[in-house]
Amino acid sequence: MTASGGSGSTSVGSVRGATSSSEDDRPADQARPAPTEAELEANRKRARRRAKSRNWSLFLLFAGPNILLILAFIYYPLLSNMYYSTLDWRLGSPRATPVGLQNYVNFFTSSSGIEVWRVTGIFTAGAVLGSMILGLLIALVINKKIPGRTAARTAVFSPYVLSGVGVALVWNFIFDPNRGGLAHILGAFGISSPQWYLDEDWALFMVIIVYVWKNLGYCAVVFLAGLQSIPKDLLEAAIIDRAGATRRFFSVILPLLTPTVFFLFVTNIIFSMTNAFDILRTMTPTGHGTNTIIFEIYLQSFGAYQRAGYSAAIAVVLFFTLFLITAVQLRYVERKVHYA
Amino acid sequence: MRDIAPTQRLTKEQRRQRRRGTWADAFRRENLLDTILTGYLPILVALLIIVLPLAWMILSSFKPPSEIVTLNPTLLPQDPTLSNYSDVARRVPLLTVLGNSIYVTVIGSTIKVVLAITTAYALVFIRVPGANLIFLGILVALMVPPEVSMLPNFLTISALGGRDTLWGIILPGLGTAFGTFLLRQHFKALPKELFEAAELDGAGHFRKLFQIAVPVSLPAIATVALVTVVNEWNSFLWPLIIIDSPEKMTLPVGLNLLQSIETQTGSYGILMAGAVLVIVPMLIVFAALQRYIVAGLTQGAVK
User: Fold this and answer.
1) CB contact at 8 A, B230 and B282
2) Which of residues 320 through 339 in chain A touch B, CB cutoff 8 A?
3) How many other C-beta atoms can be found within 10 angstroms of the C-beta atom of residue A86?
4) Model confidence over A140-159: pLDDT tens digits?
5) S-S: A81 plus which of A69, A111, A312, B34, CB 3.0-4.6 Å?
6) pLDDT at A23 over 50
7) A280 vs chain B: nearest CA distance in angstroms?
8) Which helix (H) or strand (E) covers residue A89, if one does?
9) What is the ipTM for the molecules in this complex?
């Protein structure tokens, strides 16, 4: 029975799982003359094995369809993308030439590939900072104890749930340099409207504004929850110490808000890299100046170029970028955020 | 943490009292200026920024082309007309497209919610070795944006004959990681005693799921359902790729088509009418059920 020590230690975790079946045996066990630990262990093992196979079929009945769907439409694409990414292949063409890692090399070294990184970087930075700063300002205001703030919270959040295509159509009209609402407002101040659609830099600025408009309510609500979790007595103590509003914000509120800031920072980076497609596509269909990484994946395979292999390579790069960001979040941020 | 939560929850009476307190406090003479300057004024500015574009959309959708191209636009339509809406219907098969969107949203969301419930139940209550590993696999899937799988899924669905069909829109999105994750966390927090009585009565997993777990989890399930509905209704990229003919389009894709047809300045009214059709239903759903939707969409940050 030298192995019993080993088997005992491995089953520590699973014994708890089997208690429901072994509990029934216990009264009978006590009536019998003291069964050895080994016999008990064998009994439990048998019961566990029987329960295990029954459990497996039930588990597969309940969870199987979902797991199959996830395997077929999330995991299989991840792997096949890696294969496609090594091909020089036009979508719909039967012929594909293996090119090794050339697609990756192109994406990281060609001027058009570097342009995608530049646009993605600017868009992400603008979208994340814009919606977080405005979201925090709104949250600070709504956090005041005044009537109507629940309604204000709801209204501010509402663009977040609206169709990106619909929102982009509305803003297309507003940004129209000749007839748009913004052109009229600027005109009232004697300023002529920038060429939002022709100038690539203005186009990028424009889609950032729209994305921030749609997204800041999310940041505001999350910040609001963070603000409301700050203990009241800390703020009251600061007031008694005659700390002004600015001092209170930077010395008490902001430090206690860091978990929220970290959380929003990471989720916003991920969202802005993945969720902006409908706005980008609807406002700037050709992607000149606004082809962020997600837009580029679409443009390369389903746009004019049909370079499916290159598109797959970018998709793989995007996945590993997101994986890295999430890993960093889990490693360094997660434990600072209060989840439950 | 869990034990503290109920005590933090306020009774209705307490909440009413607290609210009355804020009313009185906020409008006391010494606070009035502060309330208006640092409270209502910024809120008003924020609300204007949020609401004005939407108001502009709705009002413009009732304007005739002459009021759209004018150099002196008015906020309110001078000569309100429904012609923009009938123009939308003339360019795209509007009722069909609307029907497609509703069909895809309802069928897709229903299946996703059912799958999320059963998967989450299995992960929490049916003990098999490796369940945690499967859960980890689902968590990783949560991280993969659908855009990454777009090309291979396009090939898979094409091979299955799902191009330009409604089931082709629905199928690849059915595997649900978000709902499974959210409901698993919820089921794990349910008190074990709830199930013990049923177990003594010899209830199997089906009865435990449908007679105990589901009824006590309705708010969490509503949250998952509504977030799923929002996402399905707004979904754009995948339907854009897989659908070619207008009769099979969902609203966002139909609007994309509309935009590519209507390129003249005067047609903004028509485009606004289209935007109203995709935005207003969601605004109504959100206004009615915002508590669940906000909770679901801010999951992970707000508890």
Assistant:
1) yes
2) 322-323, 326, 337-339
3) 20
4) 888 877 777 788 888 888 89
5) A312
6) no
7) 11
8) strand A87-89
9) 0.84
Flag whether residue B251 sits within 8 Å of chain A, measured between CB atoms: yes
Q: How many domains does chain A have?
A: 1
Say if residue B292's pLDDT is above 60: yes
Three-state SS at A293: helix
The predicted structure's pLDDT at residue B270: 86
Structure tokens at B71: 């150099």
Residue A53 belongs to a domain: no
Q: Taking a C-beta distance cutoff of 8 angstroms, is the pair A291, A222 a contact?
A: no
Assigned token pair, B176: 């649900």
For B242-269, what is the HEC assignment?
HCCCHHHCCHHHHHHHHHHHCCCHHHHH
pLDDT at position B19 = 56
Instruction: Look up residue A189 and give its two tokens.
Output: 């101040």
A262 part of a folded domain = yes
CA distance B244 to B256: 12
pLDDT in tens, B43-73: 888 888 888 899 889 988 888 877 777 777 7
CA-CA distances (angstroms) from residue A333 to A264, A265, A330? 11, 10, 6
Residue recorded with tokens 């889609």:
A207
Residue B193: partners with Cβ closer than 8 Å, 6 or more residues away:
none
The phi-psi region of residue B244 (left if phi > 0; otherwise alpha if psi is between -120 and 50; otherwise beta) is alpha
B133 SS3 class? helix
Q: Look at A65 and B115 and tell me if their CB atoms are within 8 Å.
A: yes
Q: What pLDDT, on the 0 to 100 scale, is given for residue B81? A: 81
Contact A159 B50 (CB under 8 A): yes
Inter-residue contact B176 to B116 (CB < 8 Å): yes
The answer to whether position A235 is within a domain reads yes
Chain B contact for A65, CB < 8 A? yes
Closest residue in chain B to residue A68, using alpha carbons only: B175
Instruction: Tell me: pLDDT of A19 over 80.
Output: no
Indicate whether A49 belongs to any domain.
no
Q: What are chain B's domains?
A: 11-85 (no CATH), 88-297 (1.10.3720.10)
Quick: pLDDT tens for B100-130: 999 999 999 999 999 999 999 888 888 778 8
Q: Which stretch of DSSP H or E encloses residue A88?
A: strand A87-89
B54 touches chain A (CB under 8 A): yes
Cβ within 8 Å of A, B 85-104: none
Residue A72 contacts B where some CB pair is shorter than 8 Å? yes
> Could you tell me the pLDDT band of residue B4, with boundaries at 50, 70 and 90?
very low
- Does residue B11 carry a pLDDT above 70? no
pLDDT tens string B13-47: 666 655 555 556 666 666 667 667 666 788 888 88
- CA dihedral (B19, B20, B25, B28) in degrees, to 10, reads 140
- Provide the CATH number for the domain around residue A205: 1.10.3720.10
Confidence of residue B132 (pLDDT cuts 50, 70, 90): confident
Q: Please check whether residue A319 touches B, CB under 8 A.
A: yes
Q: What is the pLDDT of residue A6?
A: 37
In the structure encoding, which two tokens stand for residue B295, read together? 């909770």
